[in-house]
Specification:
alpha+beta; Aminopeptidase; three-stranded antiparallel β-sheet; 6 strands; about 35% helix; globular
């Protein structure tokens, strides 16, 4: 799972500095110990994963760049355990915003995160009720 993260995080979060990406990886390692994680595999290799807590908060969803449909499949698999989902995504993470919107997530709030250089990054809080048919 960390290999998928390493290959994709820098691309989706290229607006962050390298040490902030390293902190993201350390945070993910902790999440993987304490959250429910579903894994997608192909030929015995992890190609994607989703980490969801018991309240339906998605703290991680990473998929290899050439793994079309895997993110949607992981989200559908998580629906068996949750009635609704919440997550946060940076506005600059265009692909993630597009992915979430296409799958029935809506922005319910936003805030601003300040990085180590003092740059502001808008972050959306998004929610989706289980049963959304936007991507089925």
């Amino acid at each position: 799972m960390l290999a998928v993260f390493d290959r994709t995080f820098w691309f989706s979060h290229s607006f962050l500095k390298r040490h902030e990406q390293t902190e993201g990886r350390q945070h993910l390692k902790l999440l993987l110990e304490y959250s429910k994680t579903l894994i997608a595999e192909l030929d015995d290799s992890v190609i994607g994963f989703i980490t969801v807590d018991y309240e339906g908060y998605i703290s991680a969803l990473y998929v290899g760049q050439s793994s079309i449909g895997v993110g949607s499949a992981l989200l559908r698999a998580a629906e068996d355990r949750h009635r609704r989902f919440e997550l946060h995504v940076f506005e600059e993470n265009f692909l993630a915003v597009k992915f979430c919107t296409a799958r029935g997530f809506a922005v319910v709030d936003e805030d601003t995160q300040i990085d180590s250089l003092g740059r502001r990054h808008r972050r959306y809080a998004m929610e989706r009720a289980n049963g959304s048919t936007a991507y089925r």
